Amino acid sequence: MSASLLVELLTEELPPKALRTLGYSFADALVASLRSEGFAPAAGGFTVYATPRRLGVLVRDVAAQAADREVLAKGPSLKAGLGADGTPSQALLGFAKKQGVAVERLERIHDGKQEVFAFRSVATGVRLEATLAALVEAALKKLPIPKMMRWGDRDEELVRPVRGLVMLHGERIVPGTVRGQSSGRATRGHRFLGKGTIEIARADDYEALLERDGKVIANFELRAHKVREQLAAAAGGASIAAEDALFDEVTALVELPAVYEAHFEKAFLEVPQECLMLTMKQNQKYFPLVDGRGKLLNRFLIVSNMAIAHPHHIVHGNERVLRARLADAKFFYDQDRRVTLASRVPGLASVVFHNKLGTQLERVDRIERLAAIVAATLGEDEAATRRAARLCKADLLTGMVGEFPELQGIMGTYYARHDGEPEAVAGAIEAHYRPRFAGDALPETRTGACVAIADKLVTLAGLFGVGQQPTGDKDPFGLRRQALGLIRILVEGNLPLSLAELVGEAFAVHPTGLLTGAHADVQMFVLERMRSYLRDAGYSANEIESVLSMHPVRLDLVPRQLAAVRAFAGLPEAESLAAANKRVANILRQAAAKGESFQNTDAKLFREPQERTLFDALGTASRDATPRFEQGDFAGYLKTFAVLKAPVDAFFDSVMVMVEDAALRRNRLALLEDLRREMNRVADISKLAA
Fold this sequence. Notes:
The protein is of the alpha+beta class. The chain is about 50% helix and about 15% strand. The chain contains 26 helices and 20 strands. The strands form 7 sheets. It has a 5-stranded antiparallel sheet, covered by helices on one side. The protein has a 4-stranded antiparallel sheet with strand order 15-17-18-16, sandwiched between helices. It starts with a strand and ends in an 11-residue tail after the last helix. The model has no long low-confidence stretch (mean pLDDT about 95).
């Protein structure tokens, strides 16, 4: 008989940031086990439940007993099972005895390698009560829990202590014990609004019964939808300034969400809104509201776990708590402005950046020098860039950033403006941290970009130079993010800078002997991140390899080179020319391995008309293509060489390159070298060959 199966684990308060993951991990693992054991159909439905004090799942169409299964036992091979006269060997007799049958009842099958003796039997399906507790235990062991807890004097462990267990199959309790709790049909309602204990008659009644009598919305997704719905209604014409993570966290904190509007004094709006919003979201889990221009309002929304008719005590209490938090923020802001950023810079000498790389002040000195070099290369204001770099880390010593490290850079910009610094300098302080995360905005000014490039390169060069590069999935200093940020600034900002020169200067601003020579490692690291960046942009592996294998000097040109490669690949001649280039590359590589040396092509040594034809066609195409390359018309450059298809095909059809005559052989190799060099200035076309 099939029926719905309910498994619910009642616990103490689960970690809210992990609740969604825990709920789905538990349900997925248990459902997968039920399916693999033959209790639940592969396409059967299930519902996930996760609240602050429970994990659960309702699985539909679960059988009381798993279906009988055919068991195929394989025995010895025919060679090992039968003697020369056809009599059963001891191995075969032993196998038959183990299966409880006579040798005559064994069958012969082919196992893919040889013919073997085998016996088919039918195993009676196991009953649900015999295995469910073990399946639940196995699912709990698979939960992504970094740190386990023990409770009482027992050895059971879980992320939080277990206080109850429900295992219902239809109307029947499935007996079993999980983490020290025996199964039953009693669950718990809302701590204040619902019935303390609720008896569940049928598994299918669980969700509706718990909401009606227990005042608990057990379904995480339904609860999350109600939270968003109520917040949107309460916001009115304002916008909610919050990330998805906060919505999920708040959903994990409540069982019956109710949204209330509250206010704070307008005087607090004098404090930078980033400070106010951060303390509201991070400390209090409130939802700030902003107007159409993104300006913070003195209204905010509370998601409470108490849906009551007169919530004024809840609202006033939360307003009182927030008022104290905002007063602290205002105090830090007022105190910090009493001291200029510039006067804080010497204090960075007492802040260690890295035990092998020195203090934050030494780091700032390096950033300042490198930023000035970048600015000079781009023709930007060196003085403003130096000033911004000098001040870029000063806010690390402010009270506000000490309380909220997430505001570093942001507060530096506010304080620089208060000190009367030029806007180019003030804006660059915040901008030099960008992009902080995937999809984040880039620095809006060249001054900000110069300081950002310098900051990222000094970090990369310094940490690579002292052997702190990322290993495997470990990247404690966020160097992958730094490299990707550097790439985005160079590429999306169209900055004509040489990666090799930038890396060289980044190492040069460090004291002699401090770093090992890891220049090439840093360049390769950045190019590897470039591969990921380009894959995300939709380019194929062959397209990316065709350009990056050339070790491009300027990353800002790479997208145009890839666009040219894609345009070339669409030509009818592309496939043939790519294959020919691959053949040329192989011939030249093999020749070099044999010690062949060749210099310029000598037309006087040509013997076959196809040599002359290719030589002339290549010269004409090169003369037409070179101006296009110099003008940055990479697509036009590559398309120019499409005319070489016929002469290249004719050359390989009629001319033997590796002939006995050394002079003739070297001349033909030189012609192929000319062909490869001229065609592959934008990309290595041979990489496009299948």
